[in-house]
Amino acid sequence: MATPSRKWWPDRPLRWAVLFSAAYALVFVLSEMLTPLWEVVPDRVSLVYLPAFVRVVAVLVAGLAGALGVAIGSFVVCIIFVGDSLLVALGNATASAAGIGLAYAIVVITSRSKELSFELPVLARIILIYSALNALLHAAFWNAMGSGYSISLTELGLMMFGDLAGVVFLFYVSRLLLRTQRMRSLLARSTML
Fold it and tell me: Each residue of 51-98: pLDDT tens digit?
């Protein structure tokens, strides 16, 4: 299995931040197209939140530069697509980056290995910690920033589930796409022989 670097600040951090900022916005738009299937609270809580996958991958691949990309992408999404005020958008962006950043830090600090891998036990720990932290931080920011929206305990639980489901869903879709691509490559090679 490939192992992401444990470095908190990778080489070419601006490139990583821009890449994950764009990826976050694109996956958010995709998620919005599918929203009628699983949205619980408009513009706030979905049963399957696809951008959660980008948050996890961003930090696993690019550390703090990935978290910065998530924050920028979230801020842009909140301003352009959701229509939040600057203050609320800043709170959402901070919560989006802080939830996954803290989860990653907890797993790195408590891990016995020097590098985190993309293996299921490591991913499961990060995803579970992230899902809880992200929901709690968003709820705290929404209340503190005066967004006019207060989240109930049920909605908090649904938000945790939505992040978890979004990461797992896109993880398996990505895995399926990679396997399909490998099969195509193998078939192309075998026909060349």
Answer: 999 999 999 888 889 999 999 999 999 999 988 889 889 988 999 999
Which residue type does 124 have? A
Give the separation between CA 91 and CA 61, rounded to whole angstroms: 24
As a whole number of angstroms, the distance between CA 152 and CA 155 comes to: 5
Q: Angle at Cα 121 formed by Cα 31 and Cα 25, nearest 5°?
A: 20
Closest alpha carbon to 139 in 106, 101, 91: 91
For tokens 């900022």, the residue is 21
pLDDT tens across 128-152, in order? 999 999 999 988 887 787 656 677 8
Helices (H), the chain: 13-38, 51-77, 86-110, 120-144, 153-192
Percent of the chain predicted with pLDDT > 90: 44
Count of alpha carbons within 13 Å of 51, Cβ hemisphere only? 34
d(CA 162, CA 177): 22
d(CA 68, CA 86): 17
Which amino acid does the sequence have at 54? V
- Please report where in the chains the tokens 């920028």 appear, as a residue: 72
| Alpha helices in 7-81, H assignment, sequence order | 13-38, 51-77
Q: Which is nearest to 69 in space by CA: 7, 8, 18?
A: 18
